Amino acid sequence: MIDSESNDTVDYGRLVWSDDLVLGVNSIDEQHREWIALVQAFESAVTEGRPAEEMRSTLAAAVAYTESHFADEQQVMEEAGYPFLDDHIGQHQLAWDRVHAFASGEGAGELAEEEMRRSLAEFLPQWLMLHINTADRQFARWLKGTMAPGTAHGIAPGTAHGGPTGPDGRVFGDIPV
C-alpha cells in the first residue's frame, strides 16, 4: 500500500487486503477478505478514539468472525486430509486464547481497558498477516501439490503455486504452525 501523505513510502504496518494475500483457495480467500475488513474496522475504531461502544461492537464482530473462520478453515483442511492440521489448530488456539483474553478482559492486570484495546488492535492485524502468509499459505501450497491434474478443490487457476518443500513436506519447516 502506498501512503500518499508520507512521500509515497510503503506502509507495512497497516492491514490491507491485496492480491499478495490471495492463497488461491477461494472459500478461504473470501473469508480472509471479510475478516480483514472486520479487523480493520476495530483497528480504526481504536486508533481514531471512537466511542467505547463502537470499539466493543467492532471487536465483538471480529471475534465472532474469528471463531467461525477458524472452524471453517479447519474443516477445509480436515476434508483435504492436511497432514499438519493439528499444528494449524494449535496455532489457531494460541491466537484464539490471546484474542479471547483481550476481548474478555481476562489477564488485564494493570492495563486499562483502553490499553488492552490498543494492544489487541496491534496484535490482531500483525498476527493475521503473519498467519495468512505462513501457515495458511503452506496449506494452499500443500493442497495444490496434492491435486490430481484437472481437479479444482476450490483452487483458483494460477494461484497457490507450489514451492520448494522440506523433507517433511512443509514449505516453511522452520516456522511453527
TrEMBL record:
The keyword Cell inner membrane does not apply. InterPro entries: Haemerythrin_Fe_BS (IPR016131), Hemerythrin (IPR050669), Hemerythrin-like (IPR012312), Hemerythrin-like_sf (IPR035938), Hemerythrin_metal-bd (IPR012827). It comes from the Bacteria. Transmembrane segments: none annotated. Signal peptide: none annotated. It holds the Pfam family Hemerythrin. The keyword Metal-binding applies. Residues 153-177 are annotated as: Disordered. SUPFAM superfamilies: Hemerythrin-like (SSF47188). Belongs to the hemerythrin family. NCBIfam families: bact_hemeryth, hemeryth_dom. This is Hemerythrin family protein. It comes from Azospirillum oryzae.
